[in-house]
Design brief:
The protein is α+β, with helices and mostly antiparallel strands. The chain has 10 helices and 26 strands. The strands form 6 sheets. Strands 1, 3, 4, 6, 8 and 12 form a 6-stranded mixed beta sheet that branches. The protein has a 6-stranded mixed beta sheet with strand order 13-11-15-20-17-18. β17 and β18 form a beta hairpin. α6 crosses α9 and α9 crosses α10. The radius of gyration is 28 Å and the shape is elongated. Bound molecules: copper (II) ion (CU).
Length: 482
């Protein structure tokens, strides 16, 4: 006979009541300790505010206190992308606005100042506020005036703030949004690097890349068809010198917001997995996430450890927004390679699907005998096919490129000036600013996984098409640049 617990029924009941009481009292304690409305603040100081992509120092173990926030609204002209100007309306002179970092239980005395040179009244709705309009009803301020109101932050999390003056959509579309963090008691777990990234969609009367000062287009905003979808207020804010940086082995936390006004972001970092995601910026932590959804007027806190060096590309994975509308940034990680985590290409060979054997070749040392001698005409024929599968999506069928996004290959001064540089671009990829035929391009071209022979063929095709200089690129030339 199997032995089971033989505790008398009476004793069981006593134990149950005992545990229930224990549970009840501990719940009550937890409840009491999260009643942040009751906290008496200890001391007073002016809040540190930072421009993106930086964030203020963590709160650590400090007690709740009175924090004075001085926020100045500025309407000012800025750059959307090369040659394109836009009149931004800002909290603190940047898009997104200054980052505010608080601790649960803090009492925030908010001073909202509308610069006398501004043309319009504004206010602020902070999603961290418990009160009418999130503060908007108490903060409408005319140019040359200041409004003060105060609130207690009683829910930890990452919150969006924005202007809520009519027409609300237009004020947000012009850049009037930012983030306020309410850290839990004791602060968030420490990490090595913290950054502030916020997405927004912009609506201009000209198409993407149309030059000059571009006015806001209400019609496109209502239809929700933005010309620009960007991080931190402009195309290229996090590339070309603005890259976020970290070293191999460090932990990185991104405070990510979405100002909208319309689009929902599918936030993703190419080649990384978020170890922890504070879902929607709240207290629930999800683990091992590839892409996290950030609603318009919402936020998310993500963190991850960087194990290998390289450029990790930050995107909205609604991917045309990344490559055609600007929602693209770079996290540049430097440090030693970690071949156990990521090997790089370790082998390259010829694949014969018709039952033939696979001839393996170690990387970068493709056997010379494997590459037949080809005439220029043969190379052009093979190269055209490779172009049609690998290159045409960005550079287009006649090598014309896509205006303001991908440079042309036709009559390209960049190509014709230096075939070695062009070979390197295909082999190793290219990111950052390049000037082609007098126009600047700032995008990311990934390195292409092609053999020396394939690169020689496709480049010979390109050089012998669309008015280029008829260079005959050989596999040996390619090998020399590997
Ligand atoms: Cu406003």
């Amino acid at each position: 006979m199997k032995k089971t617990s033989k505790m008398p029924l009476k004793l069981k009941a006593v134990f149950c009541i005992f545990f229930a009481m224990l549970l009840f009292t501990s719940c009550k304690k937890a409840e009491e300790s999260t009643d942040y409305t009751a906290i008496v603040t200890d001391g007073e100081k002016e809040a540190e505010l930072t421009a993106p992509p930086m964030v203020p120092k963590p709160v650590g173990n400090r007690p709740a206190m009175k924090l004075k926030v001085n926020m100045e609204i500025k309407e000012q002209e800025g750059t959307m992308t090369d040659g394109v100007k836009y009149t931004y309306w800002t909290f603190g002179g940047t898009v997104p606005g200054s980052f505010i970092r608080t601790r649960v239980g803090d009492e925030v005395e908010f001073h909202l100042k509308n610069h006398p040179d501004n043309k319009l009244p504004h206010n602020i709705d902070l999603h961290a506020v418990t009160g009418p309009g999130g503060g908007a009803t108490s903060s409408l301020v005319a140019p040359g005036h200041e409004k003060v109101f105060s609130f207690k932050v009683i829910n930890p999390g990452l919150y969006v703030y924005h202007c809520a003056t009519a027409p609300v959509g237009m004020h947000i579309a012009n850049g009037m949004y930012g983030l306020i963090l309410v850290e839990p008691e004791g602060g968030l777990p420490p990490v090595d690097k913290e950054y502030y990234v916020m997405q927004g969609d912009f609506y201009t009367q000209g198409e993407y890349g149309a030059k000059g000062l571009q006015p806001f287009d209400m019609n496109k905003a209502v239809k929700e068809t933005p010309d620009y979808v960007v991080f931190n207020g402009k195309v290229g804010s996090l590339t070309n010198g603005g890259e976020l940086t970290a070293k191999v082995g460090e932990t990185v936390r991104l405070f990510v917001g979405n100002g909208g006004p319309n689009l929902v972001s599918s936030f993703h970092v190419i080649g990384e997995i978020f170890d922890n995601v504070h879902v929607e910026g709240g207290s629930m932590v999800n683990k091992n996430v590839q892409t996290t959804l950030i609603p318009a007027g919402g936020a998310s806190i993500v963190d991850f450890k960087v194990e290998t060096p390289g450029n990790f590309i930050i995107v909205d994975h609604s991917i045309f927004r990344a490559f055609n509308k600007g929602a693209l940034g770079i996290l540049k990680v430097e440090g030693p390679e970690n071949k156990k985590v990521y090997s790089g290409t370790i082998q390259e060979g010829i694949y014969l699907p018709e039952g033939g054997t696979i001839q393996k070749m170690p990387n970068s040392t493709a056997a010379k005998t494997a590459i037949p001698k080809r005439t220029v005409t043969e190379k052009i024929k093979i190269g055209k096919e490779i172009f049609g599968t690998t290159c045409f999506a960005c550079h287009q069928s006649e090598g014309q490129g896509i205006p303001s996004t991908f440079p042309p290959l036709a009559k390209s001064d960049y190509l014709n000036a230096d075939p070695k540089r062009a070979i390197k671009t295909i082999l190793h990829g290219l990111s950052g600013e390049v000037t082609v035929n007098g126009k600047k391009y700032n995008n990311v071209m990934p390195s292409q996984n092609l053999s020396d022979d394939e690169i020689a063929n496709v480049m010979t095709y390109i050089y012998n098409s669309w008015g280029n200089n008829k260079t005959d690129v050989t596999p040996e030339m390619v090998k020399a640049q590997r």
